[in-house]
Amino acid sequence: MVYVGFISMTKRKLIITFLFFAAALNVYSEPLENLISPAQAQRLRASNELIIDSQLKTNPVPELLPMNNELRRIVTTARNTLNPNMLVESLYLYKKPVQYDTTNGSWFSQRTGIFNQVAAISTLTGVQYHSSSRGESRVFYEYSSVVDGPNGRNPLPDPVYTRLPSTMTLHAKQRDLTFGENIYRYDYRVTSDAIIFTQENVTSLSIGIIPVIGKGKLRSVMAIIDCGDSILIYSVSMVNALSVPGLKDRMTSSFSSRAEAVLRWFTGRLDSEVFS
Questions:
Q1: Would you give the DSSP letter of residue 72?
Q2: How many alpha carbons fall within 13 Å on the CB side of residue 173?
Q3: What pLDDT was estimated at residue 244?
């Protein structure tokens, strides 16, 4: 009787272990209509536009934030920490090629490729954006590289994973036309239904000789959520910036351009490296 009981307990452990790994593999997509409002979903499905919302006021409340618990926790924590006076959000729906539709299956096999692309910091070098003030395309990041820490002395290759970490932190040295060369910290979070990363400035950001954003006073969050036949991409930049007349309007335009540039970069990486 004791022997039979031991076998039974062992079987139960095996069953529990099997169910655990089966659950880990079944990383299912989330219907778009469960994440955003019906009006937003209809607007995104009907066109290829990038929805952008900008707010210039004390502690603005996100208007486009999808219904995802971990994403909402990260954005709420950043907002409460910063008490921002500027916020720029965007929503975009990336349509997958039909053969990659995961509506009735798991996006587990796609997550690793997607994660490796959002961690490919060096590939941001040379990315362009459209300057509305100049009426022409300009280079966004003149230089972008992973570095060996917050002091950014030595460049490192982009990380490549075959098995995803639940969390990861990178430091990057990046030079753009608005704020010059700076060090940023990137924190990545992988959940069953999303890939989320946060960018925070390690060095203060200046426009010309004016330091407009202090250390740690910028948070940019980007979330990638699988919706079966498509991928919902949400981004938000929150800033507690120096109040200078006319300067916030320039920064708002800059962050809108940054959101568009990063989106173009990421969707281009999806086209060429994940869904090609």
A1: H
A2: 14
A3: 66
Confidence of residue 28 (pLDDT cuts 50, 70, 90): confident
Domains of the chain as residue ranges with CATH: 29-274 (3.30.530.20)
Quickly tell me which residue has 């996100």 as its tokens. 62
At 119, the amino acid letter reads A
Q: What DSSP letter does each residue of 158-221 carry, written as one string?
A: PP--SS--SEEEEEEEEEETTTEEEEEEEEEEE-SS-EEEEEEESS-EEETTEEEEEEEEEEEE
Q: Which residue has tokens 């499905």?
A: 45
What mean pLDDT is predicted for residues 59-68?
Answer: 96
Q: Specify whether the CB–CB gap between 184 and 174 falls below 8 A.
A: yes
CA distances from 45 to 40, 50, 193, 263, 267 (A): 9, 11, 20, 17, 16
Taking only the tens place, the pLDDT of each residue in 37-62 is 999 999 999 988 899 999 988 889 99
Using CA of residue 108, residue 91, residue 134, residue 218, what is the dihedral sign? negative
Cβ-in-10-Å burial (0-12, 13-18, 19+) of 276 comes to: exposed
Angstrom distance (rounded) from CA 272 to CA 208: 36
